[in-house]
Amino acid sequence: MTQTEYKIYIDDIIRRVETARVKVSPHHIVQIIAISKYSKYSEIEKLYNIGQRAFGENKVQDLKEKATQLEELPLEWHFVGNLQKNKINNLLSLNPVLFQALDSIELANELQKKLDAKGMKLNCLMQINSAKEDSKHGFMPELAKQSYEQIQKTCPNINLKGVMSIGAHSDDKTLIKNSFDTTYEIYKTLPNASICSMGMSVDFELAIECGSNMVRLGSLMFNK
């Protein structure tokens, strides 16, 4: 695919995002995070050259390698994967724009200790397991608001910006929609929350229509 063909392809994805967001409101803004975990440096640079700035990785080592290799580009890096406690210092050394998968009180407490020791703050999203699936990480919906407020109160170095969730793993559109609706309803109750990150390559349009203002697109953005 030539650079021109690729731009046309990406423009079509942006058109789909635009079509979904105006169904919510002409004032509803949606940010695209390009999930680059299976992509090469050259592919990230190619996407950068047509205007994409925000990228996400789900492994700390991969984030380090790509951020270092592409450090001359003004990229906005997000960490979207499950964070092991022994990798916290490694992640903090990279200072990502946003950590999207704060999935337990235990992790929040450990993160707070490390942030406090370094005199740092970190923007985070609390992950909600809205579909209540064993294969997914995150807070159960019924505990989400209470846990969010607890983290805000006890972890001052964690700057909670909102929530993240993954749609139900199902071919049933109703189940997927219900999982997005659950997350969005929680999001609306949270103090000072500004980001509701829902939707991936297979379901981002539905997620946006359910209220998402940040989508995480991987294979779709890199044409894989």
Describe this entry's structure for a reader.
The chain has 224 residues and is of the alpha/beta class. The protein is built from eight helices and eight strands; from the N terminus they run αβαβαβαβαβαβαβαβ. Strands 7-6-5-4-3-2-1-8 form an eight-stranded parallel β-sheet. Helix 5 (105-118) links the parallel strand 4 (98-102) and strand 5 (122-127). The longest helix has 22 residues, at 3-24. The protein is globular, with a radius of gyration of 17 Å. The mean pLDDT is 96.
The main sheet orders its strands as 7-6-5-4-3-2-1-8
Estimate what percentage of residues fall within beta strands.
Answer: 15-25%
**Helix content percent band:** 40-55%
Average pLDDT reading: 96
Gross morphology: globular
One letter per element, helices H and strands E, the order comes to HEHEHEHEHEHEHEHE
Low-confidence stretches: none
Ends distance: 12 Å
Number of extended strands: 8
Structural class: alpha/beta
Radius of gyration, CA atoms, in whole angstroms: 17 Å
How does the major sheet shape up?
Answer: 8 strands, parallel
Q: With helices defined by DSSP (H or I, 4 residues minimum), what is the helix count? A: 8
